[in-house]
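Thread: Modeling a multi-component assembly for a lab meeting

Hi all, long-time lurker, first post. My supervisor asked me to bring a structural picture of a complex we are working on to next week's group meeting, and I have zero experience with this. I have the sequence lines for every component (287 residues in total). Could someone generate the structure of the whole assembly? Inputs are pasted exactly as I received them:
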Amino acid sequence: MADELDESPPLRCGVETTPDATIVTVSGEIDMDTVTDLTEIMTNALARAQRLVVDLTGVSFIDSTGLRALVDVHIEASRTARDVKLAVGDGQARRPIEISGLDQVLSVHDSVSSALAR
Amino acid sequence: MRDKQSRTTHSMRDWVASLSGTAADVVAETGTDRPHLYARVVASATQLARVRARVGQWTAGLGMDHEQVRDVVLAIDEAVSNAVEHGYAGRAGMVTLFAACNEKSGDVQVIVSDNGAWRAPPADPGSRGRGLRMMKGLADKFDITKDRTGTTVVLGWHVLASLRPGCAA
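Re: Modeling a multi-component assembly
Sure thing. I ran the full set together rather than chain by chain. Output:
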């Protein structure tokens, strides 16, 4: 394996501000290597918005390191009386969220529109 | 990986000899003469995507279904992340990954081992506990052994005969 090219897994994040909420759209792979970028973007977005929706429907992989980032932003939001919702749908993020039991802790929705409707 | 076998045979033999308990049983049961995945990777977060790609390719090649491949890839990612974060905690080291299909049962068995000294960070935010819980939930068999030589994780999955043409006896 060591002789192969070093390719970081691509993680892409976009931020959109609407009158209702700030929406962070994430795609690619979230692991120990890429999570720092996501944490920074979510933290900055939360600091400037009352309501944050993180769209994970396009995520192709997330592990416990990525889940910790979601829990951290959830805790920070609760502490500052802000709101964070996750749009997960049938994407790859659903299985790790469910197997870790975090679907009972985090605000998990099928889509951005259903997250905004609540 | 098979093409690399002649080069890795010696170090693999050393690694096998270093195993004890459940991990030693796994290698004894599955054998090392059948197609398997054996890799030693630098304990670094930058290796995770590469490990996942390799594991995904190998498990899909056995004929495992999409959902099981996803679970195997995620569980192995957790085991390797665990070695990077807790086993070595930023110090240089290697992680060894072994995956093979048990000829008799058809089960896929995986070993992830490191030579680090297990330690929890001063303020563990609970993510490693979550990682361990996820491995337990994702695999049909889960075993972790920590001693002064390092940490060894064993994971196993039952695979339906119809879904594993690549592991046919």
